[in-house]
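Ticket #4471: structure export looks truncated?
Reporter: QA, pipeline team
Priority: medium

Steps to reproduce: submit the single chain below to the structure queue and open the exported record.
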Amino acid sequence: MPEEAVLFERITPHVALITLNRPDKKNAVNIDIAQGLSKAVHTVESDPDLRVAILAAKGNVFCAGADLGEVAAGRGTNCMTETGGFAGFVKEPRTKPWIAAVDGVALGGGFELILACDMAIITETSKLGLPEVKRGLLAAAGGAFRVGISLPRAIANEIVTTGLPLSAERALQYGVVNKVTKAGQAIEAAVEMANEIASNAPLSVTQSLALSRSAHDNTEAELWEMSDKSTIVVMSSDDAKEGPRAFMEKRAPLWSGK
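Actual output as written to the record:
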């Protein structure tokens, strides 16, 4: 039987590795990847033991965007899901952190998958970009506005209007990614970051992440209201008692996520 287009692996009790697996097609998004990624998101969200997800890809192209064969055949909607949008991912509601681990080229839809993640680690030879304007298209899977959120205004405008790629060095300089590694080490570095996140109280992580994600979309008054509600949720949890107790007893905390 052919391998699945999206591989799902629990690499530690609390960390999942999701891998795009169409390297012969440059991991271009078709119905199999869209449905596979959507399923992976739902699995991560529904499993209380999973705390962090890593999105990676086989081959030297992270993702070439939509499968043009599907588009040319009039099946472009196969590259999307109803709730997740492009690749079943860019719009899919997620409460847990996702880290992109990129070792290669990520242009167009590939870059949009990275921008939809919460953090990213790439290799020094990786290239990111939105070349849609060179083809008379639009980075409509979130790229055209997410670069505006993630990057300084002038740099974001340069990326979306020139269509030229962003080097790993510039991506790190402008905070598009968290870290640049040598070739072949992106997943290893992502696992290290994921384990660091997973060692923290799950409820504290998801509530903190929700606030951070909301920072650009709400007024300060709205953010204070959200923060106050999150504080009540976190401080009334069992883990809010376990954390200080473990600190005083000089041991690693045993988080329940409740």
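Status: closed, not a bug. The export was complete when the record was re-opened. Leaving a note from the reviewer for reference: The chain has a mean pLDDT of 95.
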